[in-house]
Amino acid sequence: MILSIMALRQTIVHAVLWTILYSFTKNIRVSPCAVVNSSSTLVPFGSAVTASCYIKECQLEKKQDFIIKWKKNAHFIPSGNASQKNVNEIHISNFTDKQAVLECFICDHNICNVVGGVLIRAAYPPPNPQNLTCQLNLKEGATLLCMWDTGIKTSDTPTNYTLYTQIRYLDTSPLKMHLPLPGENFFKVPRECFALFQEMQVYVVAMNAIGQARSNLLVLDPMTTVKLDAPMIEGVGTQTFGCLEFNWSLSRTQKWIQKLLNIEIKMKPVNSKIYNKQQLNRKPEKNVKVCNLLHGMRYEIQMRVRYNSSPWSEWSNAANGTTPMKAPTGRLVTWLKLPRPEIRNQTAQLFWKPSLQFRANSMNVSYTVSLMGEFTKKKETVCVTDQQSCSFQIHAKVKKVCLTAMNEVGKSNPTEVPVYRRRGSYRVPFLEILPQSEESLLARWKSPDTSAISEYVLEWKPLSGTNLNLVSFEIVGKNQTSFVISGLEPYMPYEMSVYPKYGGVIGHPNSTMIYTKEKAPSMCPKLEIGKITPSLVELSWDEIPLEQRNGIITGYRIFYRDEKNNSRVIDADSTTRHMMLKDLYPFTIYEIFLVTSTNGGSVTGSTITVKTVSIDAFEIVLIVIPACVGLVLFFFATFACFSKQKWMKKYLWPVIPDPANSNIKKWTTADSLECMPPFKELKDPVLMYLSHVSLLSLPEKESTKGDENIKSGNWPYNSKSVDAGHDDSSHDSETFDSEQQSEAVPYATVVFAGPYRRQPVPPPVYLRSESTQPLLGEEEPSSPRPYEKMTSQTDPPDVGHFSTFHKNSHGEKKASLWGDFPMLRSLEIDNKT
Questions:
Q1: What is the pTM for the complete model shown?
Q2: For 130-225, which CATH superfamily applies?
Q3: Residues 824, 825, 826, CA angle at the centre, nearest 5°?
Q4: How far is Cα 301 from Cα 233, in angstroms, rounded to an integer?
Q5: CA distance 152 to 149
Q6: What is the pLDDT of residues 381-403, one digit of tens each?
């Protein structure tokens, strides 16, 4: 029967091939007087092909000069030598076309007519089947499902697959052949074709018109491929401390299996999420005992099975069991917080957690907190709780705090908690928090500048949620400066603190707010509108609740645009709750919205619409009047500057002559004095002309009085006042008048306290007048030389009064008098200039 099926399949394949050939050759123009043959119409890719063209008796053959040519896919190709005049062959050594039409032509003087043709196709052998696998299924009548990969398809040639199976170590076992349906790459081997718990070999053969290929040989025991049903735990009991024993069985349809099976058991305390797993070998219906469990703990147990290396079954149903109880053992890790250690009576907070050696040995455990003084062994119980924290009042006499764990069987040894009564000055100088995952953080810090550090206390607590009183902590060694905190919730704020312990004191904490992972806030604050003016809008918003921030707020951003779609942006930091939008247009509608950002994203608030008010008449008056007043003052000041130019110049830019290039006569001109501002604080009028020099020689009797006059500064201001008490004919004082003698005033007066020839040569005494013109400095080249005593002459008579030189006096007399006074000689006015 199998042979007849294969023969039928071969017939179908050839029929398909001839159908394809006919579809290509029916369009070839053929002649009844020619026959075209080929070695094969389907050849392996790259093999040789031979074709021949035989010309029968017909009218074309009667022509003596005709030749035979060949075309492949409408292109002439070189042909071989003709064995006879009417027979021609062609040989293609490497046929690489998937399909090609070979046509035979009879040509007469470059006129060719086709007389026949043949279609030749090239194909590859099928690829080797890959990844052959089989799996036993005991649910559906114990069938063996085998599957394989067909590989990469190289041609359109139909390929057939055949699965062969044979039981090993049985000489009489025949090789069985299985034919999948066309296009399928799997086959279900029935139960009668294989044996359980015995090895068998399996392989697949692929075949097409070109050739065949075979897969690798697979050797397997069908039972090693079966996935058993999940087992059932029928009961759990206990007989010894720390152990649980339970019985189990396979499913109802698989209870006939009595072979040794692999068993995997997983268990966990009912209040935990971490499973412990164990593997062992057992036959079905045999009890399983698990030990090394905690005392007085309720466990949840599941199991699964497999045969040798077969796939694991699904997990069984969960069963619960409780181990026998014992008294708690081990110590507790504690953390006592005193807000202000130096205060004698205050509220203390004690936190604790089990150490690695602690065993509660029961499901229900409670804790007792007791206080003990320095000179007494009597304990004062202040707290009994099933939580892991306690708050109580602690007074100054308490030197020790004891913590004891209890259950229904007994108590543990007390854990002594030291009481730190002083607050140290050191703190951790640097604390950095880095996210590790959605549930963990890495804390890193630097040690203070002291070698007395004994340990660090890391404390973290949630800042939002239902259990705000939950405080977690960890005690780390003095040489450790980093720690990974796990078991946190993402997008929730936590406060973390690091306390250094040293020398019996606790230092100040370094605290920060942290997130394991951040995202955009759950909400955006609502904008509130405040004051609105023609050019200003006042905005404010509330702070986002802590549980809805989902991260640390990094800042706010306000977007607003007007009716013409002109947009602006204002940024604000995380502490800002108030903002002013300035430089707005009056009577304009603005759309405003707020964006709140964290390190994990941003959220946009709702858009509000605000319309600025228009400018009213009162505001226009307040703006126009000051503007007009300012404009009038500006024009008035400009007009005053141009109309009173000389007057303004007199006050702002007074003319200061250059003493090095001028003399006293030049200073007396009206042009040089008209720009001098008046001095209102002077009672007497300003001397307008400086052209008169008076010489005064006092007798010895009046020298003292003269000194007083010099010191007091009471000098006459005109010639008449000087000569009032002297007669012109009887006094030796003389006066020199300039061209304007009637209006001249003395510029300076030189006083000689005694006779000129009798006194030593002191420096001359110069007294400034009240004039504002500068004196000639001694450093200037035109300044008079210092006074020097002249050569000895006859002593002149004492001079006790002023005398005057008239303009018509003789020149020689004038020159002789000036020669006796070289200093006054240098002050002589040059009338030529």
A1: 0.49
A2: Immunoglobulins (2.60.40.10)
A3: 90
A4: 9
A5: 9
A6: 999 999 999 999 888 788 889 99
